[in-house]
Write a structure and sequence with these properties.
The complex is a heterotrimer of chains A (322), B (257) and C (295). Chain A has 16 helices and no strands. Chain A is mostly helical and 322 residues long. The longest helix of chain A is centred in the middle third of the chain and has 27 residues. Helix content of chain B is 39%, strand content 24%. Chain B contains ten helices and ten strands. In chain B, helix 3 runs parallel beside helix 6 and helix 5 packs across helix 6. Chain B is globular. In chain C, strands 1-2 form a two-stranded antiparallel ribbon. Chain C is globular. Classes of the chains: A mainly alpha (322), B alpha/beta (257), C mainly alpha (295). The interface between A and C is large, with 43 and 42 residues.
């Protein structure tokens, strides 16, 4: 056990998770379970987007489904209606989503807490309705069909894995940098942050843009996995599920977020109806967690974890190591 | 040459005039005191100077430049640092990281440097780390380097705020009641620290109720009451000024808030 | 545009608007008592509709009995939610964002619970008055329009009397305006908050019962209704009784106007844009003149 812990400490919890993900398909996984695994991976990107936006910067957004939709449909429309190559779509869609994220960021200057949440929910709904009602462009309720993919099958999985891994590493690097510190300062005390020289508005926009780009990439992956898009996949239901994942994972914890993405998406489901009761279970867990936050002070868990995996001394960090 | 000058600064909140036509100046290398009963507008004045509030009337200039129209982050970059009356640290982060925030204004790396962990970033982080250690030594906090800010005793947290402000290399440091809540030995350490800071070339504007400290440190003292400047001069001067005595006797105030 | 068309629009708008007003009222009440935003109001509304569906349509209880039972059951649920969940969080002084997350978790629970219990397909029931449109001259009126309006009017009158005349009502207003003084006067805050939730959930249930004949019930409709109720709250001014009513009516009428005069498919987008506009520019509502600065 101690050897395992030492190994984990050496390569990092996040890297360990990705190593496992690398190996699983090689063990041979039935196709439905494989699809679920892929979905978990696709959701990792959205969870990362919320780790940055909510966990680090403290901006509570329930509009991620709308951003994923923008990424997915931009990719789909460019490839199907305009014949763009899927690789170009992969570049263009996250950029477009980033732009939308920028727009979504401006209200955050004035709005906090419930007002910001309502704003993001409204935004996401507007996106969905726009998609639903522009049949010529988006296929409307009939969906967008026969979307060309970058890769298929196992190749797609490993491609997504690499991208997700890079995104996770990027997020960790962001967290330990001056940008991450500025984000966290904004979350904890905007006025102090501003007084210490942080351009709060610009950094909020940055958080929204980065978050949107990640969600956009996730959207592209979603389009690639099924080759088909439908506005019913991008509702408040999805947005709240993403929120559930990031909170269950520890809000600003990358490894936890990744694990909980798979836990919520991919845990084996024997029967169809299990999907719904699984959400009931998860939401109850979250309710209890929130209700008993003070009792469950994360500090207690952190103490346990620190004993198993002590953080490297700060000197290592300063030398610029990941 | 005056480093900071406020000219007829007034700040209204609805019907309340919190700061009323205040003229104040702090010269290079000075330690100035800002005293007055609770509610006399001292913190509001500092908030106007640092850009958190826009003055309803009047101007503020720093280092020859008008700053009353600028946002707080720009004013910080120009060289005005501050601490807060109620501690505003990032309690969930370490002392090291809290002080690191002070260096934000001097950071040259950008997002790509961070994502790619370029040599530029690593070099900058190493330089900052060294400087942070210097500042922590200077303020006597080095042993708390990796401790979470919320685990520190109140008195040390106040010093962390000072360290954070120093990290930005300010020309002027505004301190809002740094001695409040400190015991006598901590107060002594604070006085020594403030003198060290002045010797290093930083001017200070000190809001305080601790009269002994104000007397011992200040070259010049400003007295506010109900938003107005009612007296200024050396500590001896204002002590004699009856208006000051009246203000303090009137509110039953003494050297503590 | 003929007078008849205008009247038609007004009646339809008033009908939906009053339902929105009920939901908005619940939100305002809870906000007044605790400063919390109960996002789940929309889903509690939906749940009320479904419970009524079971009682009236499935178990064939008489309409008035089913109505009352539903409201009582939902009110009780609101009371329990307050005591077990909302009030403890509120009194612990948790960060408001955490409480919002908890509320979202509640929404997920309710939506999925509804899905489990009643299935994903839209369902509706009709009132005993039937579904035959009544023709008043050129205007077409559904029989339950008048029923809806009557119910809401009665409710509003009863509530007004409750708040102005009864001890509990006055106590609730005291807690809203001066929580500390109220506590010192011996008012049991947790009971009052629980009562507020009971009332708000009851109102949501009534709204759900009234909405079902008009818009078929689906598990996910809660969020959309909640957004419109929020728009109503913002227009009328957060925390204002009359404001919730006026805001609800405005939203209801605006919705119908837009659907009739512009294009029906985007009527929700129109309302949401109004919501966003108020969020950004006039969060305190049309009637508020105070924009205070916090020192």
């Amino acid at each position: 056990m101690a050897k395992l812990a030492a190994l984990l400490k050496h390569i990092g919890a996040t890297q360990a998770i990705f190593l496992v993900l690398l190996l699983i398909p090689l063990l041979g996984v039935p196709s439905y379970q494989f699809y679920i695994l892929e979905r978990g991976l696709q959701n990792v990107l959205v969870v990362l987007s919320l780790v940055i936006l909510l966990g680090y910067t403290g901006q509570l957004s329930l509009g991620q489904a709308g951003l994923v939709a923008v990424g997915a449909y931009t990719y789909g429309i460019l490839c199907v209606n305009f014949g763009l190559s899927p690789w170009l779509g992969l570049i263009a869609a996250p950029l477009a989503t980033g732009l939308v994220g920028l727009i979504l960021g401006f209200p955050s200057f004035k709005l906090t807490g419930p007002f910001l949440v309502v704003n993001t929910i409204a935004f996401s709904e507007i996106v969905r309705i726009l998609i639903l009602n522009n049949e010529k462009l988006t296929g409307g309720p009939f969906g967008l069909n026969r979307i060309p993919t970058i890769f298929d099958g196992l190749k797609l999985y490993y491609f997504m894995l690499v991208v997700a891994f890079l995104a996770a590493i990027g997020t960790l690097r962001l967290s330990r940098s001056y940008i991450g510190l500025a984000f966290k300062a904004i979350r904890e005390d905007e006025i102090a942050a501003e007084s210490m020289g942080v351009h709060v508005r610009n950094f909020k926009l940055l958080a929204f843009i980065i978050s949107a780009v990640l969600a956009g990439i996730s959207g592209v992956f979603f389009a690639n996995m099924s080759g088909y898009l439908n506005p019913d996949s991008f509702t408040f239901n999805e947005s709240s599920t993403y929120l559930l994942m990031v909170v269950l994972g520890g809000m600003s914890n990358v490894g936890g977020g990744i694990l909980s993405s798979f836990a919520v998406t991919s845990l084996p489901e024997a029967l169809r109806f299990m999907v719904r009761s699984r959400m009931v279970v998860y939401s109850i867990i979250l309710l209890l967690m929130v209700r008993y936050t003070k009792v469950l002070e994360i500090e207690n868990f952190k103490r346990i974890i620190r004993r198993l995996w002590p953080t490297p001394p700060a000197a290592d960090r300063d030398k610029g190591n990941v | 040459m005056s480093l900071l000058t406020t000219t007829q600064v007034t700040k209204r909140f609805g019907g309340i005039v919190a700061v009323n036509e205040v003229d104040l100046s702090v010269g290079s290398g000075q330690i100035c005191g800002l005293i007055g009963p609770n509610g006399s507008g001292k913190t509001t004045l500092v908030n106007v100077i640092t850009g958190i509030y826009k003055p309803t009337a009047g101007t503020v200039s720093f280092d020859g430049r008008p700053i009353h129209n600028r946002p707080p982050h720009e004013i910080c970059a120009l060289g005005v640092g501050r601490t807060f009356q109620n501690i505003r640290l990032l309690l969930t982060q370490s002392v090291f990281d809290n002080v690191r925030l002070g260096a934000h204004v001097h950071t040259r790396s950008n997002l790509w440097d961070v994502l790619l962990q370029t040599r530029k970033l690593r070099r900058e982080e190493k330089e900052f780390a060294d400087r942070i250690d210097d500042v922590l030594e200077f303020t006597g906090l080095i042993q708390y380097r990796d401790e979470l800010a919320k685990n520190l005793p109140y008195g040390r947290q106040k010093v962390v705020e000072i360290a954070r402000a120093l990290m930005a290399r300010p020309k002027l440091l505004l301190l809002d009641e740094p001695a409040a809540g400190l015991n006598s030995s901590e107060k002594g350490n604070l006085m020594t620290l403030l003198r060290k800071i002045r010797e290093s070339g930083v001017s200070l504007l000190l809001i305080e109720h601790e009269m002994a400290m104000v007397e011992a440190l200040s070259d010049h003292v400003f007295v506010l009451n109900y938003g107005r400047m009612i007296s200024q001069g050396t500590f001896a001067d204002i002590k004699k000024d009856l208006a000051v005595v009246e203000a303090y006797l009137g509110t039953g105030g003494s050297s503590h808030a | 545009m003929g007078f008849d068309t205008v009247l038609q629009i007004l009646i339809q708008g008033l009908n939906m608007g009053l339902i929105y007003a009920l939901a908005a009222l619940g939100i305002s009440l809870i906000w007044n008592a605790t400063g919390l935003f109960n996002f789940a109001q929309g889903d509690l509304l939906t749940m009320g509709g479904f419970v009524m569906l079971s009682m009236f349509a499935k178990w064939a209880l008489p309409y008035p009995l089913a109505f009352v039972l539903t409201v009582v059951v939902m009110g009780l649920l609101g009371y329990l939610l307050s005591q077990g969940f909302f009030y403890p969080m509120f009194s612990q002084g948790l960060h408001p964002d955490i409480i919002i997350i908890g509320t979202i978790a509640l929404i997920v629970l309710v939506q999925n619970g509804i899905l489990l219990l009643w299935g994903p397909h839209p369902q509706r029931f009709s009132t005993p008055l039937g579904d035959h449109p009544v023709h008043l001259g050129q205007i077409i009126v559904m029989p339950y329009y008048l029923w809806n309006i009557a119910i809401v009017v009665v409710l509003v009158i009863v509530l007004q009397m409750f708040f102005k005349k009864s001890m509990i009502g006055i106590a609730m207003r005291a807690v809203a305006q001066r929580p500390v003084a109220a506590a010192l006067m011996g008012v049991r805050t947790n009971q009052l908050v629980a009562l507020t939730f009971l009332l708000a959930t009851g109102l949501a249930a009534v709204a759900g019962i009234l909405i079902a004949p008009i818009i078929p019930l689906t598990p996910e409709m809660g969020s959309i209704v909640a957004l419109k109720a929020f728009a109503a709250v913002l227009i009328g001014g957060l925390g204002s009784f009359a404001g919730a009513l006026i805001g609800g009516i405005v939203i209801g009428v605006a919705e119908v106007v837009f659907a009739t005069l512009v294009v029906p498919t985007y009527k929700d987008v129109f309302i949401f844009l109004i919501l966003i506009a108020f969020l950004l520019f006039r969060p305190r509502g049309i009637f508020s003149s105070e924009i205070s600065e916090k020192v």
